[in-house]
Design brief:
The complex is a heterotrimer of chains A (84), B (296) and C (393).
Chain A: E1 6-8, E2 24-28, H1 38-42, E3 48-49, E4 57-58, H2 68-72, E5 78-82
Antiparallel strand pairs in A: 2-5, 3-4
Chain B: H1 17-29, E1 33-37, H2 41-46, E2 58-60, H3 66-80, E3 87-93, H4 94-99, H5 102-111, E4 116-121, E5 147-148, E6 151-152, H6 161-167, E7 172-177, H7 181-192, E8 198-203, H8 207-210, H9 217-226, E9 233-236, E10 239-243, H10 251-255, H11 268-285
Parallel strand pairs in B: 1-2, 1-3, 3-4, 4-8, 7-8
Antiparallel strand pairs in B: 5-6, 7-9, 9-10
Helix pairs in contact in B: 1-7, 3-5
Chain C: E1 2-6, H1 7-18, E2 22-25, H2 32-43, E3 50-53, H3 57-69, E4 74-78, H4 80-85, H5 87-95, E5 101-106, H6 120-124, E6 131-134, H7 138-153, E7 161-166, E8 174-178, H8 182-188, E9 204-206, H9 215-244, E10 252-255, E11 262-266, H10 270-283, E12 288-293, E13 295-297, H11 301-308, E14 313-318, H12 328-337, E15 346-351, H13 361-370, E16 379-380
Parallel strand pairs in C: 2-3, 2-4, 4-5, 5-7, 6-7, 11-12, 11-14, 14-15, 15-16
Antiparallel strand pairs in C: 1-8, 6-13, 10-12
The chains are: A alpha+beta (84), B alpha/beta (296), C alpha/beta (393).
Amino acid sequence: MFGPLVVKSGSSKNNKTGSWRVETKPKFLQKNCIGCKMCIAVCPEACIYGEAKNTYYCDYNYCKGCGNCAYICPKKDIEMIKEE
Amino acid sequence: MSNTLFSAGHTACAGCGQSLAARLVIDAAGKNTIVVNNTGCLEVFSTKFPESAWEVPWIHSLFENASAVASGVEAALKYLGTKDNINVIAQGGDGSTADIGLQALSGMLERGHDILYVCYDNEAYMNTGIQRSGLTPFSTNTTTSPIGTCSSGNLRPKKPMPEIAVAHGIPYVATASSGFPQDLQRKVKKALSIKGPKYIQIHAPCPLGWRYESNILVQVSKLAVETGLYPLVEYESGVLSAKRQIVPKPVEEYLKLQGRFKHLLKNPEELKKVQDIADNNIKKYGLKAETVQASS
Amino acid sequence: MKQFLEGSHAIAEAIKLCKPGVISAYPITPQTHIVEDLAQMVSNGELKSQFVNVESEHSAASVVLGAEATGVRTYTATSSQGLFYMMEVVFNIAGLRLPIVMTDANRAISAPINIWNDQQDTISLRDAGWIQLYAEDIQEAVDLHFMAYRIAEDKSMMLPVMVCMDGFILTHGFETVDMPTQEMVDKFLPPYSPLYKLDVNDPMTLGPLVDPDGYAETRYAIQKTHEEALEFIPKVMSDFSKVSGRNYGGLVEGYQLKDAERVIIAMGSVCGTIKDVIDELRAKGKKVGLLKIVSFRPFPAQAIYEALKNVAKVAVVDRAVSLGSYAPIAADVKSAFFGKKKGPKVISSFIVGLGGRDITKHSVKEIFRLLTTKELEGEFIDLKPELLKESYE
C-alpha cells in the first residue's frame, strides 16, 4: 500500500497564481518594443511570451503583478495599470 | 506551450529573486538534468503536493543533505554509465549551504563528484522567518539578530563561502546575481561544461525579508554589485579568472532601498563599517574599473 | 560452499553476491571490517560498485538514498552513534519507500561511550518504518541479507530493511559459513526494478511538501505494508529455504517449545547461549524452551501469541532499555497478550547484557531461576551494586 509519494512534473500549472494580483498588472503596449527579451529574463513566473518586436504579452493566469517587467523595459513599453 | 523547465503556478512571493534564479539555472542547464534540493523556500514553494513546478527529475530529502544525496545520484549514474549525458545539480539556500549543510557540501567537493552546487543566497533563513544565517551581511536586521538598544543587528561579516569552495581545489567557482540574468546563465552553462565539482553562489534578493518593493529586484541586485558589497567573480582551477568591473557607488545607495538596513541610515559609525567591507572587497578583487566611463 | 569466515567478511561476501551498484558507509567500530572488505573487493575489481567514502553517517545514508532513488541497488552499514547520526535520513528513506538494505552491528549508545554489544541502537529506531531482522549467528546474518533485498525490493513492499547483528560477537567472531553461489543468489534475487526513479526521460518530483491534507495517508500506508509484510516475510524465507537448503521458519523460531513450562523470548546472538542452557536443563528434566524473535519490525504479535498462549511462564530478555518505562521487547510482548483469553500467567521482563556485558550460561540459568509465579518488571541481571551510589559525593 502506498500513500502520496510522487508528484507529476509541471503540475503547478494547475495553480493559477494570477488570482494573487490585487493592485496592478502589466500592460504590454507593443509600440516601441525592441524585442530585447529583458522582460522575459526577469519574470519569476516565466509567464511572458514573445519573439519579434511588439509581440510580447503575458499570461494573466499566472502573473502575480510583481512589476519587474515594467521596471526593466528599456523602452518603457510595459505599463503597470490598475487591476480591474 | 512550455517555454521553461520551471513552470508557472509555483507559490513564491511576487517578485521572488530565488524563484527567478532557480528558473534561470534550470533553463540554462536543460532537460537532461537531475536536481537535488535542500529544504527551504525554493523546495516548499515549488513542490507543495500535489503540484510541482519542476519539469526535470527532482528530489528533496532533508535540510542539509542535498550535496550527499546528489553524490549518490551521481554515483548511481556513473554505475549505470549514463553520467556523461546527464547534469546533476544540488542546490539550496544560504542556510542549507553555508551552515547546516556545510559538512555535506565540503565532503562532496572534496570527493570530486561531477556535480554543480548552486547556493541561492538571500542572506538569511528566509523560509523559517528571516533568521540570521552565516551568509547574513554585517549589520543586517534579522529576526534573530534584531536591532535594539544594545545591538545594531548581525555582528558578523558574511562567511566567505566562495573562498571556502575554492580552497577545496575544485575546477570552477563563481558568484552571480538574479539581477544579471544573462551573466548567471552563462556561468551555469560554463560550469556544466566542466567535469568535477562546481560551486555557484547567486545573490537572490528577497522582497519580503529585505523589505523592498517587489518591482525593483534588478535595481537592488545591481546596486549590491556596484557598491562592491557583492562582487561578481569567477575562479577557475583556484585562480581568480574574471570579475565584473564596477564604477563604485557609495553603499548608502544600496542600503537605503531596503528596510533591513534602514537603521544604518541613522548610524554613521555602523554605516562606515559597511562601507569598509565594500572598500575591502573592491581592493581585494580589483573591482574598480580602470577607465572612468559613464555607463547606464 | 563452506568456509571458515569472520562474520564481517561473510557479510561482505554476501553483499558482493547481491551486486549493489552504489555502496557508501562511514567507519564505526564494530562495523568497520564489513566496509573495509567491500572496499577491497571493489578495488580488486571483484565487485563493480561505486564506493563512496563519505564524511559522515548522515551523508552515507543520504548517498544511498540518492542512488536508490536513481534506480540502483545500494548498501550501507553502521552501528550505534552512526545509526543515531543518520536517524533523520533513516526515517526519510522509509517515508520515501526506498528499498535500501543496511547492516547494523549492534552496539551500545553513548554516554558513557561504549563500543561493545547491546541492541539499544536499532531498537531505538523501531518507529522508523524499516523492517528489522535480527540474526542469531553468522550463517543467519548472511542469509538474512539475501532475504532482505528480496523483501525490500518487492513491489508490494518497497520498504527498507535493517539486518541487525550483534557487534563483535557476530561481526568479529568466526564461524563455518555455507555461502551460496552466484547462481543460487541470482535465482533467488531478481535485479532491482524500481517503482519510480529520477529519470530524465520520465521526470517526476520526489519528496514534495505534504501538508495535513495528505501526510497521514503516507504513514497509514507504511503501517499497512508492515501488516502485509507479516505474511510476505515468511514466504520469502520459505523460498530461500528451498534455494539454500537451510530452513528458515518465519518471523519467530521456537526451540523446545513443545511442552515447555518456562520460556525465554529473546533476539540476536544470546539465543545461541540460551539454546545451550536449554539443552543442559532439558537433560535434567526441566521443561524449558526459547522463542527467538527474528523479525522485530513488523512485530510478530500473532505468531508470539500462537506460540506461547499455553505457556505458563514467559521471560522476556531485553538487551536494551526504554529509560523511564518498560523494556522495549517486553512492552511489545505483553501487548500481544493483553485482552486475549489465553496467555502466560506471568510475563517477567529482564534486562541483561547492556554495554557488552557477557550473557553467560550462568546469566541465563539465573533468568530461568527467577522465572517464578512472582512477575518481575525490568529486572537487571548481573548488575554490580558496588558501582552504584545513592548521592553524588
